[in-house]
Write a structure and sequence with these properties.
heterodimer; A: alpha/beta; Rossmann fold; 4-stranded antiparallel sheet; globular; B: mainly alpha; MetI-like fold; 13 helices; about 75% helix; binds adenosine-5'-triphosphate; binds magnesium ion
Chain lengths: ~260, ~300
């Protein structure tokens, strides 16, 4: 049934080198629209690195070389003509550590809109409310929008960061272990929120938490030492993995 | 066996004893420093206040009158100690030099940290450090032989005055403000920049909307620090400002600052005379101003923690 969904990103034979060290050894995989895809694998296997190739954040590291293609809406984002600024508006990113700017909650959420030159107070107010509601934190912060985002708890900060991304209205949201710094309750709230968001967004999530991957993702990809070992429906990966390494990892035998 | 352990635990260990000794030493040193600071304050204050209590100069006259001739008395019989020209001179050179230095310093700091953090930083960092270390008399000498003639040719007059003083102070405080601004920008966590870029900001937008904005308290501290240096600088300013205790009517007429009058006058007055006390009052004013600068810096720095 899920197979009819449209593919929004497809990566083909992506190799990435940090200097001479090959961190991604030819990754080919695609992501479907309005699905949650989980990337799992032991530490250092290249999950974050791969995630960062999808919005070209790796470009910021001088020693990196990348080959292969990543098509977003049938356009290669590694083509020389690609505007990375526009790309990152379409492919938003949430980091492992909550990283709100040291500004007010309001200013955090509208940051992306301000960049785009939106000045109209009404539009901004509306965007703030919508994005904070989507991020399931509107009720908590609606009376203190002008307070510093740094005064919030870690889980609340992470949701403000998610709202900040949502306000830009990206098509794809990349999340790199978004709940690893949070307590189980905040993590659960963020998981529920992601499930609601997937009707409107394509979500790609790196996680070390097997329960999290199995609870919320539609498809799961298992990485090992820069290789994509197995990529299938989440049920298949967790119940009938084809590869021995996947099974070992999921059952906690290594990693 | 048991007793041995017990004894060991009860006896003061060597580490405890040496910790105790360390504490005593640092306490004594701190006490000495505090004593010195307090006595300096007491000394300057007692001398400086004598102008108002023994020589009966009105405080308001001191701050607002423009005739500085504390050796002679006016019609009421009190010394003519009107410090306004020096106050104006000091504030004028301080504010003007800070206003000019700030954009240069911040632009240089942005270049060193954001635009060329490897090459540019490696070249400019030692240069700024070197400039910070140059003695002020050298700056004054260069000011005297380059800036003053330049001002004379370009703007007329003698060349001595606020403009020349501003120039010299600008060059003097620029490296200090720059290197403190660099520290402020480098203290901005990397992940703020990443978050901004990931939201589709250009590098330039990231610099002015996130990096400069979140380091604003640190940058303000740098500027105030530069101002406090400019305010307190004596020698270099004295060499180029013309040293006329007159209210300056333009930027190229000879003027004076609190510090320049002090350095010029200190040797020429008799301890305990009205003229000498009046100089101490200027010193007291300087001390209070540097206190104000420090308070401002502390206040800003407190707000700027990440
Ligand atoms: N900036 C970098 N410079 C050089 N090598 C890097 C850099 N970032 C990552 N690597 C290397 O690339 C490999 C993959 O790292 P990556 O961060 O993608 O792993 P990961 O799967 O996200 O691990 P974790 O689960 O610990 O976050 C590692 O061997 C790491 O040492
Ligand atoms: Mg990672």
């Amino acid at each position: 049934m899920a197979d009819e969904r449209k593919e929004i990103i497809s990566a083909t034979d992506v190799h990435l080198f940090y200097g001479r060290n090959e961190a991604l050894k030819g990754i080919t995989m695609d992501f479907r629209e309005n699905e949650i895809t989980a990337l799992i694998g032991p530490s250092g296997c290249g999950k974050s690195t791969f995630l960062r190739t999808l919005n070209r954040m790796n470009d910021l590291i001088p020693s990196v070389t990348i080959t292969g293609t990543v098509m977003l809406h049938d356009k290669n984002i590694y083509a020389p003509s690609t505007d990375t600024v526009a790309l990152r508006k379409e492919v938003g990113m949430v980091f492992q550590q909550p990283n709100p700017f040291p500004f007010s909650i309001y200013d955090n959420v509208i940051y992306g809109l301000r960049l785009a030159g939106v000045r109209d107070r009404r539009i901004l107010d509306e965007a703030v409310e919508t994005s904070l509601r989507q991020a399931a934190i509107w009720d908590t912060v609606k009376d203190k929008l002008s307070e510093s985002a740094l005064s919030l708890s870690g889980g609340q900060q992470q949701r403000v960061c998610i709202a900040r991304v949502l306000a830009v209205k990206p098509d794809v949201i990349l999340l790199d272990e978004p709940t690893s710094a949070l307590d189980p309750i905040s993590s659960g709230q963020i998981e529920n929120m992601l499930l609601e968001l997937k009707d409107e967004y394509t979500i790609i999530l790196v996680t070390h938490n097997m329960q999290q991957a199995s609870r919320i993702s539609d498809r799961t990809a298992f990485f090992l030492q820069g290789d994509l070992i197995e990529y299938a429906d989440t049920r298949t990966i967790f119940l009938n993995p084809k590869e021995k390494e996947t099974e070992d990892y999921i059952s906690g035998r290594f990693g | 066996m048991n007793d041995e352990i017990k004894e060991k635990l009860l006896k003061k260990s060597r580490a405890t004893r040496s910790e105790f000794r360390g504490r005593i030493i640092s306490f004594v040193c701190t006490a000495i420093i505090v004593t010195v600071v307090v006595s300096i304050f007491y000394f300057v204050a007692s001398k400086g206040l004598a102008t108002f209590f023994s020589n009966k100069v009105n405080l308001w006259d001191f701050l607002s009158k423009t005739i500085w001739n504390p050796g002679s008395t006016d019609s009421h019989g009190s010394p003519q100690a009107g410090a306004l020209p020096m106050i104006v001179g000091s504030f004028a050179v301080t504010i003007l030099s800070a206003v000019i230095a700030t954009p240069f310093a911040i632009a240089t700091a942005v270049f060193m940290t954001e635009i060329s953090p490897n090459k540019g930083y490696k070249i400019l960092q030692p240069v700024t450090e070197l400039l910070v270390g140059i003695p002020s008399v050298v700056y004054g000498f260069i000011g005297l032989s380059v800036v003053v003639p330049f001002v004379r040719h370009t703007f007329g007059g003698t060349g001595f005055g606020i403009l020349a003083g501003t120039f010299v102070l600008f060059v003097m405080i620029l490296p200090t403000v720059t290197s403190m601004s660099v520290d402020a920008l480098r203290a901005v966590p990397r992940y703020y920049r990443e978050a901004s870029l990931a939201l589709g900001a250009t590098r330039w937008q990231t610099i002015y909307k996130v990096v400069l904005r979140s380091s604003a308290p640190g940058l303000a501290t740098a500027v105030v620090f530069g101002m406090s240096r400019a305010f307190g600088e004596a020698l270099a300013v004295q060499m180029v400002i013309g040293n006329a205790a007159l209210l300056p009517h333009n930027l190229v007429s000879p003027a004076s600052t609190l510090t320049s009058v002090l350095t010029m006058g200190m040797g020429n007055t008799v301890m305990g005379s009205a003229a000498n006390n009046a100089l101490w009052s200027l010193a007291l004013l300087l001390l209070l101003m540097s206190l104000v600068f420090n308070l401002v810096i502390n206040k800003i720095a407190k707000r700027g923690k990440f």
